[in-house]
From TrEMBL:
The keyword Transport does not apply. The keyword Glycoprotein applies. One of its GO terms (biological process) is cellular response to hormone stimulus. Belongs to the G-protein coupled receptor 1 family. This is NPFFR2. Residues 70-329 form the G-protein coupled receptors family 1 profile domain. Signal peptide: none annotated. It is found in: Cell membrane. GO terms for molecular function: neuropeptide receptor activity; peptide binding.
C-alpha cells in the first residue's frame, strides 16, 4: 500500500493479482517471474536497461537535492533571523522538516526499487522504511493544509485573529502524532520473504484480509490527500476572493498597491494549489485503479508499461512536491531571496577575505570618538561610516508568504 514501492507482476503463469502490483519492492519489472527476469538482457540484478536507469537516477537525485537542501535553507533563514520568528513561519519550518524526511526516507529507497530486483536491506528496514515514508508524507501534506488555514484566518480576519504559540505547537504536535498513528499498519503488514519459485528476497505487504487493506487505503486517501486538498482549495479560494475584494481591511492603500497585491496573491495561491494537486493526483489515481479496477486487466504490455514507466513517473511527481515548496517561497518572497543572498555572500567573504576583520579593527581606531558607526563591505573594501545617533533597526515580524 505504500506509495513508493515498485509495481510488479506475480507469477509466470500470468495469474497477476493487480491489487498487489505495487506491494512488492523487488519483483520483476515486466510482470513476469523473477526467474525470467534473471535471464533478461539487463542482467540478473537490474530491472531496466542503462538508459532508463540513468534517467531515473538523474530525476530522483534532482528531487532529492532540491528537497533536502532547499528545505534546509528555509529552516536556516527562519531560525537565523528573529524578526522571522512568527507562527506561520514555524509552520513552514515544520513543513520543511517533513519534506526533508520525505527526501531522506522516500527518494533513495524508491529509486533503488526501480534499479534492483532483490530487496537487499534486511527485515527491519523492510518494516521501518515504509513506516517512516508514510509518516513523513502524511505530516507534510497535513502541515501544508494547516498553513492554508492559518493564512486564511490571518488574512480574512486580520484584526480578530492571532494564533498563540501554544496553539501552534499543539497543532504541529497533533499532526505528527496523527501521522505516527495512522501509519502503524505499514510497519505491521510489511515483511521480507523469499519469493516462491526463486531464492531472492522481496519486501511487500501481506494483508490476510484484502477488504481491510482496501479500507485502509481509502482512509489514507481521505486523511492524507482528500481532506488536505479540500482545505487548501477552500482556504486559498476564500483568500483570493477576499484579496480581490476591496473591503479586505489593511490590504489596499492605493490603486497601484491594489493591482500589485491582486496579481501577486492570485499567482502564488494558484501555483500552490495546482502544484499540490498535480503532484499527488496521478499517484492516487494509479493506486485507486490498482485496488479497485485492475483485476479485470490481463494485458501483459499494459502491465509492463505501468510498472516500468507510469508508476516511477507518478512516484517522482509526488516526491518532487517536497522540493517545489522552497522554490515557491523564493519566487514569491523578496525577503527570503534577500536573506539567502546575504547568507551566500557572508560565506564567500569569510572564505576569501582573511584580512577583513583586521581592516575593520584598523578603521575603528579612526572613529574612537564616535559612539556609533556602520560597516559597509563592497567589492572587497571595508568602509566605516560614523553616525551621531543609533539608527533605528527594529524590524517588524513578517511571514515568508507576505
Amino acid at each position: 500500500m505504500s506509495f513508493f514501492y515498485n509495481a510488479s507482476g506475480k507469477n509466470n503463469e500470468f495469474e497477476i493479482n493487480m491489487v498487489n502490483i505495487e506491494s512488492s519492492y523487488a519483483q520483476d519489472s515486466s510482470g513476469l517471474s523473477i526467474n525470467d527476469t534473471q535471464n533478461s538482457s539487463y542482467g540478473s540484478e537490474f530491472k531496466h536497461p542503462p538508459g532508463v536507469l540513468a534517467i531515473y537516477i538523474i530525476a530522483y537525485s534532482t528531487a532529492f537535492l532540491f528537497a533536502l537542501f532547499g528545505n534546509l535553507v528555509v529552516i536556516v533563514v527562519v531560525l537565523k533571523y528573529k524578526w522571522m520568528h512568527t507562527v506561520t513561519n514555524f509552520f513552514i519550518v515544520n513543513l520543511a522538516i517533513a519534506d526533508i524526511l520525505v527526501a531522506i526516507f522516500c527518494v533513495p529507497i524508491t529509486l533503488l526499487t526501480h534499479i534492483f530486483i532483490e530487496w537487499r536491506y534486511g527485515a527491519v528496514m523492510c518494516k521501518v522504511t515504509p513506516y517512516l515514508q508514510a509518516v513523513s508524507v502524511c505530516a507534510s501534506v497535513n502541515t501544508l493544509a494547516a498553513i492554508a488555514v492559518d493564512r486564511y484566518l490571518a488574512i480574512c480576519y486580520t484584526f480578530n485573529y492571532k494564533m498563540k504559540w501554544k496553539t501552534s505547537k499543539c497543532i504541529m504536535f497533533a499532526i505528527w502524532i496523527f501521522s505516527l498513528i495512522i501509519s502503524i499498519p505499514m510497519a505491521l503488514f510489511y515483511q521480507r520473504y523469499v519469493q516462491s519459485g526463486s531464492l531472492l528476497y522481496v519486501c511487500g505487504e501481506n494483508w490476510e484480509n484484502k477488504f481491510l487493506e482496501k479500507i485502509y487505503f481509502v482512509g489514507i486517501c481521505i486523511c492524507c490527500y482528500a481532506v488536505p486538498l479540500v482545505l487548501i482549495i477552500i482556504c486559498y479560494s476564500l483568500i483570493g476572493f477576499r484579496v480581490w475584494n476591496r473591503n479586505a481591511p489593511g490590504v489596499y492603500k492605493s490603486n497601484g498597491v491594489i493591482h500589485k497585491s491582486k496579481v501577486k496573491a492570485v499567482k502564488m495561491l494558484t501555483v500552490v494549489v495546482v502544484l499540490f494537486l498535480f503532484s499527488w493526483l496521478p499517484l492516487y489515481i494509479i493506486k485507486f485503479l490498482i485496488y479497485f479496477q485492475m483485476d479485470e486487466y490481463d494485458n501483459l504490455d499494459f502491465v509492463r508499461l505501468l510498472n516500468n514507466y507510469i508508476v516511477p513517473i507518478a512516484q517522482w511527481l509526488g516526491l518532487s512536491n517536497s522540493g517545489i515548496n522552497p522554490i515557491i517561497y523564493c519566487l514569491f518572497s523578496r525577503k527570503i531571496r534577500i536573506r539567502i543572498k546575504m547568507m551566500v555572500k557572508c560565506c564567500r567573504y569569510r572564505f576569501y577575505d582573511d584580512n577583513a576583520a583586521h581592516e575593520i579593527n584598523k578603521q575603528t581606531k579612526r572613529f574612537s570618538s564616535t559612539r556609533y558607526f556602520s560597516v559597509d563591505y563592497t567589492n572587497g573594501q571595508v568602509v566605516l561610516r560614523p553616525h551621531k545617533h543609533r539608527k533605528s533597526g527594529s524590524k517588524k515580524q513578517t511571514n515568508i508568504y507576505d
